[in-house]
Design goal:
five-stranded mixed beta sheet, Porphobilin_deaminase_cofac_BS, 13 strands, Double Stranded RNA Binding Domain, 307 residues, D-Maltodextrin-Binding Protein, domain 2, 3 domains, alpha/beta, globular, binds ligand PBG
Length: 307
């Protein structure tokens, strides 16, 4: 029996690229596919920073509903936008091989402002906190919308620059001349990876998409998301994490960071462990951060974000 696999996606250029990428891979395996673009509320509600809306799954909510209603069979997400707890009835079918996980600064004129004072734009708590930690004299302004909207605003607003995920720009073939890879900034958990989700009891689609799973990326993103979930306990906070597999000695290198919203406080952790310990690495790393002042810092973050 063959059926056409209906691939749900948001309708931004980046999301459509990602869905098409998955469709092509499934087609190459002999599956028939169809892309269904659905407008997500994440693109519509723009009058408040996302964290103020108190919704962690703002980018994924609409597709989750469409899937639970049977309007689509699978959904393709930027994995960093997927809440660590999936809705009931929806499971992870595949994690695709990670592209670049780096953040990059697109600047307006030149980078001389880095040495002095400057204004950069981002809506990400993680990017803002890390930026202010490194450049305490700078100001960070809020900037939301999809990648194209954000680039347009950068041209007109008089900011010195704005921060983007390298993977997002690469996928839609945007290569701003004025850019700087922020190699010191720790990425969001699962940045640069894509997740395909399926209905829990849809064996046909699970079997199809699971063939696209990249085990190394699955393990590394599992560690990063477990770190996030253990630290946050359901609230949003400036958290960064990166796990990297080292083939030479079959080990995982992990880096995790928790910062205050103003970037003044930072708790960092870095470790190298044998691959065999991957399953609980995110959990133990988060516990270590919590014990080293992280519990108090999380409390402070909650208070700050309430106002
Ligand atoms: N929240 C928006 C979002 N979600 C995923 C990406 C880019 C692709 C990725 O990081 O996997 C972006 C854009 C950005 O952060 O600049």
């Amino acid at each position: 029996m063959t059926k056409s696999i209906r691939i749900g996606t948001r309708d931004s250029a980046l999301a459509l690229w990602q869905a098409t990428h998955v469709a092509e891979k499934l087609n190459a395996l002999g599956y028939t596919t169809e892309i269904i673009a659905i407008k997500s509320e994440g693109d519509i509600v723009l009058d408040k920073p996302l964290y103020e809306l108190g919704i962690t799954g703002i980018f994924t909510k609409t597709l989750d509903i469409a899937m639970l209603q049977g309007r689509i069979d699978i959904a393709v997400h930027s994995m960093k936008d997927v809440p660590t707890a999936l809705p009931n009835g929806i499971i992870q079918g595949a994690v695709l091989e990670r592209a670049s996980c780096a953040d990059l600064l697109v600047y307006n004129k030149d980078t001389r402002f880095l040495e002095t004072e400057g204004v950069i734009a981002t809506s990400s708590l993680r990017r803002k906190a890390q930026w202010l930690n490194k450049y305490p004299k700078h100001t960070v302004e809020d900037l939301r919308g999809n990648v194209n909207t954000r680039l347009q605003k950068l041209e007109t607003q008089g900011w010195n620059g704005a921060i983007f995920a390298a993977a997002g720009l690469e996928r839609i073939h945007i290569k701003p001349k004025n850019h700087l890879i922020l190699d010191w900034m720790v990425p969001a958990p699962a940045q640069g990876a894509m997740m395909v989700v399926v209905n829990q009891d849809d064996n046909y689609c699970f079997e199809a998409v699971n063939q696209l799973n990249h085990i190394e990326t699955e393990i590394c993103t599992h560690i990063e998301r477990q770190f996030l979930r253990t630290l946050e306990g359901g609230c949003t906070a400036p958290i960064a994490a990166l796990a990297q597999y080292n083939e030479a000695d079959d080990s995982i290198h992990f880096k995790g960071v928790l910062l205050s919203v103003d970037g003044k406080e930072k708790i960092e952790l870095e470790k190298n462990v044998p691959i065999q310990e991957w399953k609980k690495l995110g959990y133990y790393s988060a516990k270590e951060v919590l014990e080293n002042g992280g519990t108090a810092l999380m409390e402070m973050i909650k208070q700050t974000l309430k106002n």
